[in-house]
Design a protein that fits this description.
Number of strands: 9
Strand content: 35-45%
Oligomer: single chain
Largest sheet: 5 strands, antiparallel
CATH superfamily: Cyclic phosphodiesterase
Strand order of the largest sheet: 2-6-5-4-7
């Protein structure tokens, strides 16, 4: 069994810009487990535990579905939280790019016939940059920081490929290994 997901990575320069913001935010907020800049990604579909025998089938389905998809650019802009400011658990950077929703739907459509349940929540493209261990007592500070950073521009990233990843959870953080890379059309 492998723990797997389908995602896109962002440009290293954008990841560095977000890493600088994480360093600045680290002084304002305590109790956040920060995502390493090299691990920043947009999850298109989390698959969970997948049998080794299904990995090739998943890769083949994604290959067929993604083959006609053209490359595109996304803007990485602004900060937000899930689920809400009073109970914030996840701090994220927003992603803007019209093709993102279509790309996520393409992945959903490719994998639904294989038994992977469709996501019920609305697609909200984002990069998780940190997770709080608890959500107590920071809503005023957080509100001010989010208002200040609402339109902070971290740069644009070219989406040239979709990656089928294996995720291995380790004490120092997750380690992501590409199982298959799907180049998008130029």
């Amino acid at each position: 069994m492998v723990r797997a997901f389908v995602a896109i990575k962002i440009d290293p320069d954008v990841a560095r810009s977000i890493g600088e913001a994480q360093s600045n935010l680290n002084t304002a907020f305590t109790g956040i487990r920060w995502v390493k800049p090299e691990n920043l990604h947009l999850t298109l579909k989390f698959l969970g535990s997948v049998g080794d025998d299904k990995v090739t089938q998943i890769a083949d389905a994604l290959e067929r579905a993604l083959h006609p998809t053209p490359r595109f650019t996304v803007a990485c802009r602004g900060l937000g939280v899930f689920p809400d400011i009073r109970k914030a658990k996840v701090l994220w950077v927003g992603l803007e790019g019209k093709p993102l929703a279509h790309l996520a739907a393409t992945v959903e459509d490719a994998l639904a016939p294989m038994g992977f349940a469709r996501e019920k929540r609305a697609f909200k493209p984002h990069l998780t940059i940190g997770r709080w261990r608890d959500s107590a007592g920071r809503s005023d500070l957080l509100r001010r920081e989010l208002e200040r950073s609402q339109r902070q521009d971290f740069g644009s990233s070219q989406v040239n490929e979709v990656i089928f990843f294996q995720s291995v959870l380790k004490p120092g953080g997750a380690v992501y290994t590409p199982l298959k890379v799907f180049p998008l059309r130029g």
